[in-house]
């Protein structure tokens, strides 16, 4: 018997008649070449033979009477796998919209707390019967995103040839359900220990805040609180402090710098749900990450920001202030004794939805995430999470019901607008009894005040996005998937425009100098060709310091119009320097002009090539591109 942590219980306490605490995943399989793979019988056999590695699948809750303390997990003595593994189907032709409707109905029902908190639906008829889907529905009190990925790895196989054998549930000894008097006695002991816990947590929080703020006053206060307490209670406190002290790697959530504006989905939710999904290329996201010099999570946030901005613009309700997203962050250290529990904190990020330029939006998201991560290190999140142990579940659950009944979400601005979660997944293909897993779409939860959730799971070269919303608040959720695809194209086009402008800047001067050098090579020594090359390089650097540069002035004039859009502002800034250099070299230039008079007379004729209309068209095209994404400023905007 194991007691739930405070953060685990919070996902139980959040549940009302319209808010549910479970999370799900939609897996799409291709069973071609593996008859029965991914189906009901094969899935049931796989679960039975691996049940020992799937601890949450046999755990059920035991509530403490009157909600005086956190509940406990026990091994369910009445476990029945046929209750949890269920069969479903979609009507022909099994389109994505039809599959999403089935998922929406299933996730809009709460889990039965008298049994282990999970269900698995095998859904047939997808994509004209060519695909099989599985919807796994598990309560958030049991797992978080990281432990959910571990659960997926325990169920699926990297070997496409593996087939489960006919298996039965291995013999195991279930736990006895404790009686109410036993639970009351446990609770009394725990309540006796709580004063010591409060003191210990207060000291630890004060010391950590003092260390992060370098406040001597807070440090002195922490030391005053931690003065040795006489008697047995003091001895017990000191022993527990030594025994429980360790490396705390958790981090605290950062607070948003601005209040979140109101959006259509920041309102109380109904029990009805809407689900939509889409996939983008992981390689495209990596292209944006490399070009922007940012993290992979920054790209995901920018994609979601672009989709949200397009959706709000289409509904004429884009706030002037940027939207705020809560981003869950795993705080697992790898030393956990039980991997199937919640080890998650969160940070707040500015989504820059009020920025029209996609690259500037990406840069702002990156800056916001960097600042949030810095604030995230202020106080270890375990210190804050432990305080959740002191709220009796009965009080917390009643507070949530009152929050919903009084419609507080309608009366005040939300602390954040939505949750955006990015869960890393396997990079190689996985199989279920030979059926290949094609996509892994996450299906998260919504709550009062946050009626929209966007979660992404990476898998085998794809980014699989799952959108969940209250049906009444966001009825057209599939348009959000379309807007996400448009946001990806917008970012890719902006990155390609910047890279293309940089390539053109580097290649245009050399391309313009090449015809001049070739023409002169027919009537001049090879030395002059090298001088022409040096002239082009000198023109690019803007520092004509050699005699060869003054000799090749006509060639420079000929190549200058081609680079006019990119070089106009730098050349204008360097004009005084060029005039001074020309003044210093005037005698030498006159002597060179006298010696090369015939060549100088021929060169102006070459500069009068009737190419001015073509130059104007090229200049106009590049100027328009420069107004959209300036080559230099856009690249600088993506830097942190």
Can you put this structure into words, describing what you see?
With 640 residues, the protein is of the alpha+beta class. It is 49% helix and 15% strand. The chain has helices at residues 6-13, 40-49, 81-84, 96-107, 145-155, 180-213, 216-225, 231-244, 282-292, 296-314, 358-376, 381-387, 393-405, 408-411, 478-521, 526-541, 547-551, 553-559, 564-573, 575-584, 586-595, 597-607, 612-628, 631-637; strands at residues 2-3, 22-30, 59-62, 72-75, 85-89, 118-126, 131-139, 273-281, 324-330, 344-350, 418-423, 431-432, 435-443, 452-459, 462-470. The strands form three sheets. Strands 5-6-7-2-13-12 form a six-stranded mixed sheet, with helices on both faces. β5 (85-89), α4 and β6 form a beta-alpha-beta unit. The chain is globular. The two termini are 48 Å apart.
Alpha-carbon distance between the termini?
Answer: 48 Å
Number of helices: 24
- Mean pLDDT figure: 73
Shape: globular
Number of strands: 15
Q: What can be said about the biggest beta sheet?
A: 6 strands, mixed
- Structural class, please? alpha+beta
Strand order of the largest sheet: 5-6-7-2-13-12
- Summarize the amount of helix as a percent range: 40-55%
Beta-strand level of the residues, as a percent range? Answer: 15-25%
Poorly predicted residue ranges = 245-256, 378-400, 510-640
Global Rg: 33 Å
